[in-house]
Amino acid sequence: xxxxxxxxxxxxxxxxxxxxxxxxxxxxxxxxxxxxxxxxxxxxxxxxxxxxxxxxxxxxxxxxxxxxxxxxxxxxxxxxxxxxxxxxxxxxxxxxxxxxxxxxxxxxxxxxxxxxxxxxxxxxxxxxxxxxxxxxxxxxxxxxxxxxxxxxxxxxxxxxxxxxxxxxxxxxxxxxxxxxxxxxxxxxxxxxxxxxxxxxxxxxxxxxxxxxxxxxxxxxxxxxxxxxxxxxxxxxxxxxxxxxxxxxxxxxxxxxxxxxxxxxxxxxxxxxxxxxxxxxxxxxxxxxxxxx
Length: 292
Hints:
By secondary structure, the protein is mainly α. It has 3 domains: about 1-110, no CATH class; about 140-185; about 210-290.
């Protein structure tokens, strides 16, 4: 990816792009909150007798707050200063992708903290480069046209109506689906609430010739059950680590990695009887993958 030069005409003075406008919105909210907090603190005590001194101190405080906020990660990702520069230099932000003409690059925004094997595959780059953008949807959460990303009030009102219609439609579909699930559970049991019930084929998911992604969806349910049963963190970590070793091993390491993963699944059979059928099925799937 190649960034436009930072010495082009209008780099500093051109109208904001959409992402810079989103950053500006959040910066204003940050400064308003920090300013009110500062004004309600010790700075309002009698020692502050001269209004110009008070104003000067407040301006200095807000300037420092702004500079610090612009340098800190934004929602766990890259700092606002980098987002603004990319917006001005007309370059997308791909996680971990170098940008010609810039020293910084977009940070990896997906943080693996949920013990989910699918998330770990995403973090490993299973789904390719992840591009990040700010659509500004939270500007409309105030339900005020003044903060909207839309240019005219008519466009903004049309968006609100579309959102209301969409929400009503989704609620109807959710009610119908819930009623169907409850009826099915009464006749066929809770097992049909499992991801195993949706496995209609043993064929790999498109783009996943190894079959690891399909395996990860099944394993994610096992992890969810373990977490709901307050299983030790070490048990879940060992399961995820053994699966990671299995899916990333080369041909010389594959058999040993498969043996380790099957042993971990067997241990789950012994410790968590509710997982016997699922762990046994995963073990058989490993054997099938090895045969292929």
